[in-house]
Amino acid sequence: MKKIKLLKPHYPIGIGKKIEELFKLGQLTEGKFSDKFEKKLSSYLNNNNCVLVNSGTSALTLAYRLLNLKKKDEVITTPFTCMATNEPLYNDKIKFKFCDIDPKTGNASFESIKKLINKNTKAIVVVHWGGLPVDIPKLKKIINNKKIKIIEDAAHALGAKINKKKIGNHGDYICFSFQAIKHITSGDGGLLVCKNKSDAKKARLLRWFGLNRNVKGNKWLQDIKFSGYKFHLNNIASRIGYEQMKYVNKIIKIHQRNGKFYDKNIKNKKIQLIKKNKNLKSSYWLYSIIVDDKKKFKNYMRKHKIECDEVSFRNDRYSVFKKFRKKLKGTDYFNNHMLNIPTGWWVSKNEARYIVEKINKY
To answer: How far is CA 113 from CA 76, 118, 167, in A?
Structure first.
């Protein structure tokens, strides 16, 4: 039996020839496929305030910039995520605090957030772990009309839903990733979705030096009113992403099919499943489980040719965040007991049955 991979990039059929055409035409930098990909994503998410960028990290950087934070302002964020969530905060010298996470979901603990909110809190950053949405409507009730922005790191959550509405329509800023191993990939890429049209308009300028690329003639003759970045997505990556959108519904459907199959059929007292509420529909980018002994379980699964591993780690393990380290009970437990099993579009029904069989016999 071949090894069942934990992660695998999806590629559109015939994409090589399409990329070759762009080289022949000399259309490599941001171009018509950048616009087409952005419009496809806007249509998919049913939100026109979409800003295509070159990575999920860039999307987060723009979101933090749009907060217009002052010296004393603070952000609450989760420690259990890719470093892309928190390094932009650190790099821009934004004050932030780590909340704990709920070890039953991997998502931010609302109880922990409540304790951290103070007069200086201006934003809360949440990660939809593995594609399972954070309950944003519930978080809004906790905020209780305070002027605190919600930023969603939705790198795992393309196609996930809250109350039957897709992620991308709940918080103030929602950041997606099209990095190599996400549901769809453009090689690398990202998307910032804004609640307000004015924020999206400013973000489109910020992504390219503060200039409007749609201006006809010499674009460099425009006035730059605020300094920006080089965050636009080139035409090559956009061509890949545009083609990926033909497959997006099928890809996410298979992730969800496998994930729901595991939810129903994994029955082993040594294994705890992630808690899911009916109003929160996961995209199942990852399928995380809580095991008794990580090393033992990982070796057992490898023996049966099933890849099983961590993907992201708690950020405060790294020296760069040394001063932010503190006792976080839920994070500690999740970190010590969580592993991920294959659930992606490449996992067939028979392979999913095989995975369940081996887990139940563990």
So the answer is: 7, 10, 21
